[in-house]
Design brief:
Blueprint: E1 7-12, E2 17-22, H1 25-31, H2 34-45, E3 59-63, E4 77-82, E5 89-94, H3 98-104, E6 109-113, E7 120-125, E8 128-133, H4 142-152, E9 158-161, H5 164-167, E10 175-177, E11 181-183, H6 188-194, E12 197-203, H7 213-233, H8 237-241, H9 246-253, H10 274-280, E13 282-286, E14 296-301, E15 308-311, H11 315-321, H12 330-343, H13 347-362, H14 368-371, H15 380-392, H16 397-400, H17 404-410, E16 419-420, E17 423-424, H18 434-442, H19 455-458, H20 474-491, H21 495-501, H22 512-522, H23 528-548, H24 560-564, H25 579-590, H26 600-606
Parallel strand pairs: 1-6, 7-12
Antiparallel strand pairs: 1-2, 3-4, 3-6, 4-5, 7-8, 9-10, 9-12, 10-11, 13-14, 14-15, 16-17
Helix pairs in contact: 1-2, 2-20, 2-23, 7-22, 11-13, 12-15, 13-17, 18-20, 20-23, 20-25
Length: 611
């Protein structure tokens, strides 16, 4: 199977058995890979009604057919499972070197079932795999675990593992690979921890076969030439400042979430922006496999009390731990980011949960006795302390470990949790970017910008330029972005490159560049219509999982702050998110009922009646 390796690992943790199975060729073509294969297997192997932290849940790590091929940013994999944070689906994405190495080691993905009696890790090398004891790693953070595993196996192997947060079932624990790359959202690390699975170590020397090597190389040369020419005219902000450049952009548009989304601008944004990060804390760029951009930042902090080194922070981390908590102490934000990476936690949910706690405290709903300390806006030391306490489930951290929805509900005010389907929003206030509000509400994993990102159109003017303040026409725009994200995630690509250099700037976002790469790599001979239909199929297969888990239109909601309270400041002042207006258009565009359920006609057209 060119592009695909054609083999999956099926790991029964309860029985300690590792079995190889052939990849279903029809499923590979219909679901592409990565995110698509993840939902294909999840729908067939896991009950949507199972408890996410029970041994009945299934955890799938899946690469795409372009992962490891040398296609620019072909470095991604997905972790797909039932989410302990939302109770629904999650498909968490990560890059780095681990995903490509998994394919070099001989497999397109790994399916974990059951639960090990004792902590274990999976070692995969050149087509062979075995489970090994990991009791000596339990309790160690992700950096310590990675270093130890490289000593035990091979120094040039690649590791994906959990830290203390995953072991302690923090509901937003991450799976960390290559030390600081994160499959971050929705609690995939907690599912690993619940299965007593500490890590996966991969090493391979294999090659990924291509259907048409000459055509693939020609497409690669042409694509990289366009990228390099564009870079000479305008050097990529992502290369110069990483995603941290988004602080200035979002503040400029008035959608930088501040004070638990009470405001859209942060007065001290310049203290925590990309330029300041580069000038004061930057060490060097860090790139994922086959990435010409290099948006990762290796950083170092030497400020007493916040010393450390590592990767990041990214924009989403800066918004959540910084502006949203009103913390302008950059060393504290960076240190909190290091702790989240080392202990394995999603920085978005962590920061937004702390912000929710600070508002609860400010309003008198949560007391100093409840929290064990005052929770004051802008307190950088509290930020750092609470991150560590959460990973260890110590004191008030044990409550924060449940996420902001359960925190706010516990203290009687669930409306103060800035979530969709119990997952915290990304760093775009949807009152000033209407499409993002619809995307948050209808995302298969809850509040997320990476399962469909209309901010590319509303904020950056990429692909389709769109007025961020209007709700009209956003149903079709959001659907297009969501289906495109399914294609990108399933192919094994990064949206930062694919959305700009592999998609034509015309209506309906035709991913012609991705189509060419996929056909040259796999020989699948997709038509453009077939590829777009595959994206739609994947999104609807995810919706099927959600509906079988009990989700419907009633869950496609946003907090009243977003739909009823106008932004009080900045360029988006006076706006609310017109979600209901957009949903009325969105369900028909999707081919769903008014209750948010895919119709029989839609399921038949996409071949999903039995899946």
């Amino acid at each position: 199977m060119p592009g695909w390796i054609g083999r999956m690992l099926n790991v029964d943790l309860s029985r300690g058995r590792v079995m190889e199975e052939a990849l279903d060729t029809v499923a590979a073509r219909n679901y592409i890979g990565g995110r698509g294969l993840g939902i294909y297997y999840l729908n067939r192997m896991a009950s949507p009604l199972c408890h996410p932290l029970s041994e009945e849940n299934v955890l799938i790590m899946a690469t795409g057919p372009l992962t490891g091929t040398g296609a620019p940013t072909g470095a991604r994999y997905m972790v797909v499972t039932k989410s302990p944070l939302s109770g629904g689906l999650t498909c968490s994405n990560s890059g780095g070197q681990f995903p490509a190495e998994l394919k070099f080691a001989g497999f397109d993905g790994i399916i974990f079932t059951g639960k090990a009696a004792e902590p274990v890790y999976l070692s995969v090398k050149n087509g062979k795999a075995e489970l090994r004891q990991a009791a000596h790693l339990w309790g160690k953070d992700t950096h310590e675990s990675t270093d130890k595993l490289l000593q035990e196996t091979q120094p040039d192997a690649r590791v994906a593992c959990i830290g203390q947060a995953g072991e302690n079932r923090v509901l937003f624990a991450s799976v960390m690979n290559d030390r600081d790359r994160a499959a971050g959202r929705s609690g995939v690390g907690a599912v690993m921890g619940s299965k007593n699975l500490k890590a996966v170590v991969v090493k391979g020397e294999g090659r990924i076969p291509l259907a048409d090597d000459a055509a693939f190389k020609s497409i690669n040369r042409e694509t990289l030439k366009r990228f390099n020419e564009a870079s000479r005219v305008s050097p990529p902000a992502l290369r110069n400042y990483g995603t941290a450049y988004g602080v200035e952009v979002m503040n400029h548009f008035g959608i930088l979430p501040t004070k638990n989304f009470q405001m859209g601008t942060f007065h001290y944004w310049e203290r925590i922006n990309g330029k300041t990060l580069r000038e004061k804390f930057f060490v060097r760029n860090r790139a994922c496999y086959a990435c010409p951009i290099g948006c990762g930042r290796n950083t170092r902090v030497e400020v007493p009390g916040f010393e450390g080194s590592g990767e990041g922070p990214e924009y989403e981390t800066i918004y959540a731990l910084g502006a949203n908590c009103m913390v302008d102490n950059y060393p504290a934000v960076i240190k909190a980011n290091y702790i989240c990476n080392e202990m394995g936690m999603d920085t978005i949910t962590m920061g937004t949960t702390i912000a929710c706690a600070m508002e609860l405290f400010e309003r008198g709903y949560l007391t100093e006795k409840d929290a064990g300390r005052p929770l004051i806006w802008g307190d950088g030391q509290a930020l750092v302390d609470l991150c560590r306490m959460t990973a260890l489930r110590e004191g008030f951290g044990n409550i924060l470990a449940e996420g902001s929805f359960r925190l706010a509900e516990r203290f009687g005010h669930p409306e103060l949790a800035m979530v969709a389907k119990k997952q915290e929003f990304a760093g775009y206030d949807p009152r000033g970017a209407q499409g993002m509000g619809l995307a948050y509400a209808t995302s298969p994993i809850g509040g997320s910008h990476m399962r469909g990102d209309p901010a590319y159109s509303e904020v950056f003017g990429v692909l389709q330029k769109a007025d961020p303040f209007t709700a009209k026409g956003k149903a079709g725009l959001v659907k297009d972005h969501q289906d495109l994200s399914c294609i990108i995630d399933s192919a094994g690509l990064c949206i930062f490159f694919a959305a700009r250099f592999m998609v034509r700037d015309e209506k309906n976002l035709p991913p012609e560049g991705i189509l060419k790469y996929l056909n040259a790599a796999t020989g699948a001979n997709y038509t453009l219509n077939e590829l777009n239909t595959a994206g739609e199929r994947i999104f609807n297969a995810e919706r099927l999982f959600l509906t079988r888990a009990g989700f419907s239109a009633k869950d496609d909601t946003l907090p009243p702050r977003i739909t009823f309270e106008p932004l009080p400041d900045g360029p988006a002042k006076g706006h609310v998110c017109h979600l209901e207006e957009m949903l009325k258009d969105y369900y028909p565009v999707r081919g769903w009922t008014a209750g948010g359920i895919p119709t029989e006609q839609t399921l038949a057209r996409l071949g999903l009646r039995e899946g």
